[in-house]
User: Fold this.
Amino acid sequence: MTSDTQHDANCPCGSGNTLGACCGRYHSGLPAPSAEQLMRSRYSAYVFGLIDYLKATTLPIQQDSLDLQSMKDWSVSSTWLGLDVEESQVIGGQPEHALVSFTARWHDLAGEHAQHERSAFVQHDGKWYFIDPTITLKAGRNDPCPCGSGQKFKKCCAAYL
Assistant:
C-alpha cells in the first residue's frame, strides 16, 4: 500500500473518516484538538508502529520512563481489530483535564483480546498529553505538578493517577 493510498484509507481509530482527514494529521505534527482525538490517534499509532508519536504524546516528564521497545514489540506483533470510544469527558480546570473511556481490541499469538480503559489526559501549552498511570510521578502532594501547570500536584494531576 502506498503512502497516498494509506492516506485515503479509513482511519483505524473507528471515526469513519479517512486517515488523512483524521489521525494522520496528528501523526504528521498537528496537535490533537481534544483528549478523545489524541486517544484515537494513539490507538492508530499502535496500529502503524509509530512509537515516537506515542512517546511525544505522553506527559513529557514521563517520556524517559517509557519502555519503548516493549511498546514497539506489542505494536508490531499485534493485529489491531478496532477501537470503541464509550465516553469522553472534559473535566475542565486550569490546566484542562479529560477522561476517555474506550475498549481496544487486538489479536496476537495468545489469542484475541479486549482491553477496557479509562485514560486521563492533561492539556499544557495548547497540546493534550496522555498521563500514563503505569509510570509513577515523583512529586509530593505540595510539590509543583509535573505537568508544568505551576499548580501544586495535589490540586492538578494527582487525582488522575
Observations:
- The first strand starts at residue 79 and ends at 92.
- The chain has a mean pLDDT of 91.
